[in-house]
Amino acid sequence: MKRSISSKLALAFILVAILTGTLLTLVFFSSTANRFQQYVFDQQFYAKLAEVETFYSSNKSWEGIEELLNKQAGAMRGPGGSARGGQGQGGDGGQGQGQGAGGMRQTEQAATEVQASPLSPMGSRQYALADQDGVVLVGIEGLYPQGTKLSHEQLNEGVPVHDGTRHVGTLLAQKRNIVYTQAEQHFLERTGKGLLWALLITVILAALFGFLLSRSLTKPVVELTKAAQNLAGGALGQTVDVRSSDELGELSTVFNKMSAELEQSDRLRKQMTADIAHDLRTPLTVIGGYVESMRDGDLEPTPERLSLIYSEIMRLNRLVDDLRFLSQSDSGNLPMNIAPLDANELLEQSREIFKLKVQEKDLSLELDLQENLPFIVGDESRLMQVLENLVGNAIRHSQRGGTIRLRSRLMDTEPGKQTCVKFTVADDGEGIPAESLPYIFERFHRADKSRHADESQSGLGLAIVKAIVLAHGGEVWVESDVGKGSNFYFCIPARG
Fold first, then answer.
1. Helix, strand, or coil (residue 427)
2. Whose CB among 58, 233, 298, 350 lies 3.0–4.6 Å from 103's, allowing a Cys bridge?
3. Average pLDDT of the chain to the nearest whole number
4. Average pLDDT, stretch 397-423?
5. Domain boundaries in the chain?
């Protein structure tokens, strides 16, 4: 039988409540019983002590004390539960003295009345008495033998008996066989029932709160499951409510981010497919049109027309090569020829490559190189491809009379991170809109939608730049202001 997480959590809360409640009930009941047992023992013992002190105050000797100690253990406790309520009648040498046998008879009569009362004990306890010298006058068999002299440790187990301020003996008791009155027994029974009711109520409340809490914990999981199923079915853009800041809230946040990225990736994939189709259609249309016209005899195959067809074929080749390059990069199979390189030499080569193009567009290409830079580690042809793409973009988007700057700097890095050399390709051209900056390195993303008209470009240049830089373990980013120009940066790790 399949159980939901909600039912499992609720059952777990109930089991924990039962185990905890049972353990606490047992511990509390045991503690209460032990404390109550000690309380009853103290009450009865000190009541007997009061009888013994009254007996001695009345008789001035221990003659006949054995009969008193062997009587059923009576608790001379009034409604207030005083432990030594009888001592005031004669324990301090006042009114109790001089009563003689009559006082003893009054004491025995009081003990008889206690036996007959509802508070009469339900059992008996044995008592022992030693005189002031520690000799046992009334013994307990096997514990305090009669006639023996008790040690100091044994005497400490009892309580001294006083006649006024004079020590006249020591009273000891057998601590087993706790004796309860009916009222005390009823108290223990009511306490046990109360604890059982408390345990039952605790389990019921635990079941209720466990059910509510499990529902609140599993509700986000249920929503995430449903959203994931919809996502798997092709319904992109699924989101769930973030209800908390705990692990479930973090999971919901990550799911929403993943869903948004999937939707964005799908949108870019569809856009890339459309762009590839467009970029393939244009040269194919040109080639097809010229070839068809030549076949039908409408156009002569002149060198100029053949040259135009050839340029369109080269454009198709570049697009196919770029797509193949990105495919290799995505699969991690991009061939690399790694070697130590001088960053400044790469920038100087780039200036020489674009020297003629810069002059044709009336631009200036400046170098700003930092001396004594460490060697970088990379593939020279790939890094030159990065610089050619970035410088080529800068030339296309710069106005006549503008300036393009190539800069190299040792990049400040956090402690423990590898040192990098930062390359900068800056221009003062048209700039990039802020909304396009996060996607500028995506494939076929066009900040300028009219760039389709540029037949020399595939729309994959910046995506290739990003792929090459990441393959070198570096980073690439851009800063731009519309109308003020753009700064493209990339860093390559230096040789350690």
1. strand
2. 58
3. 78
4. 86
5. 5-125+177-184, 236-334, 338-493
